[in-house]
Amino acid sequence: MSTTDVREAVARAHREEWARAVAALTRRFGDLDTAEEAVAEAFATAVERWPADGVPPNPGAWLTTTANRKAIDRIRRESKRDAKQREALMAYDEPPEPLGPVGDERLRLIFTCCHPALATGARVALTLRLVGGLTVAEIARAFLVQESAMGQRITRAKAKIKTARIPYRVPSAEDLPERVSAVLAVLYLVFNEGYLATGPGTDPVRHDLTAEAIRLTRLLRGLLPEDGEVAGLLALMLLTEARRTARVSPSGDLVALGEQDRGAWDTVLIAEGHRLVRERLATGAAPGRYQVLAAINAVHTSARHVDDTDWSQVVALYDQLLCLDPSPVVALNRAVALAELDGPGVALAAVDRLGDTLTGYHAYHATRADLLRRLGRSRESRAAYDRAVELAGNTAERAYLARRRDLPG
């Protein structure tokens, strides 16, 4: 087996097995740092041994077994007390606990990381690191904060878990509903990172992340079939994923929604997403954030051509979303729709009011650049595109923005 083949096997195992291994060791040893470090050591051992020994038939089992041994060795080295050694061995030999209401280890790990004792931001960041496999830099971009600040947030979350002795347990069926909100936020951010990957050197669209987010959300819907926001998030993911293959051009540029080949969209995913949206509307219950976002995407995917889009309905839905989530990013997205309804001048005024809070967000500058171009203010538009290209983390998006910037006129 070539070095390239082994590297690809290790990378694939990292995507598929990292979260499972961390979850298994966290449950067994009760310590997040021990689990993470042991699994990291197991992957380092795989990099050393697999080129000579070959990739094992079951990489996940090999990695988990190796990580268990690494964890026990670490505990033995760090403790001179026989009791600690016995504790480690007992932990290693302990049979797995009953799965309880959450049967998937990765999803169970999300719930345990989303313990109410942790701040919401810390829950999401920590879970993205452990289950989504995102780097600290990728998580920082998702939160629009500095990488150093995000690293500190994750470190503090781990310290809180240890000092407060927060248990890594399966939540009871009674606890599930109140823990769902943070879990949905995690799954949404994992999906977004896959749909528009920010990491340097990564594919512009990471299907492994979008597929995993959808898989876990389907599992969560099976656990909570009556939860409207779970259904809404699943619908939102499906309607977004349906456009994935049309999102990047053969040359590697991002393709904007209005320019996509709608014949390439996945009609099966669109049909399922529309069905979920209709089912939630039929209940008459007040929709939450994800349900409104799904409804916006349903409007877009219902139009056979961009000119057929019901922009008045899109703006109305964004107005509804702003009542639920009055964030500057939502206001920016509303302004994009407003430009189609009331013109670029009205939209630019709305965008400029967001400058104090979104100056470090590439989409803010990209939106301004497009609106300025449409208003004939070419010099200002080019400067805004320059800033957007500088801030964008996705290679396909940078290529798209650079192309838009260099268009004549």
TrEMBL record:
Give every RNA polymerase sigma-70 region domain span: 22-80
Question: Does RNA-binding appear among the keywords?
Answer: no
Residues in DUF6596 domain copies:
179-279
Q: Boundaries of each RNA polymerase sigma factor 70 region 4 type domain copy?
A: 110-161
**Pfam families, per the entry:** DUF6596 (PF20239), Sigma70_r2 (PF04542), Sigma70_r4_2 (PF08281)
Coiled-coil annotated residue ranges, if any? none
Signal peptide as annotated in the record: none
Transferase is among the record's keywords: no
**InterPro entries in the record, alphabetically?**
DUF6596, RNA_pol_sigma70_r2, RNA_pol_sigma70_r4_t2, RNA_pol_sigma_r2, RNA_pol_sigma_r3/r4-like, TPR-like_helical_dom_sf, WH-like_DNA-bd_sf
Q: Which UniProt keywords apply?
A: Sigma factor, Transcription, Transcription regulation
Similarity annotation: Belongs to the sigma-70 factor family. ECF subfamily.
Q: Known PANTHER family for this protein?
A: BLL6612 PROTEIN (PTHR47756:SF2), BLL6612 PROTEIN-RELATED (PTHR47756)
Q: What is this protein called?
A: Sigma factor-like helix-turn-helix DNA-binding protein
What is the source species? Kitasatospora arboriphila
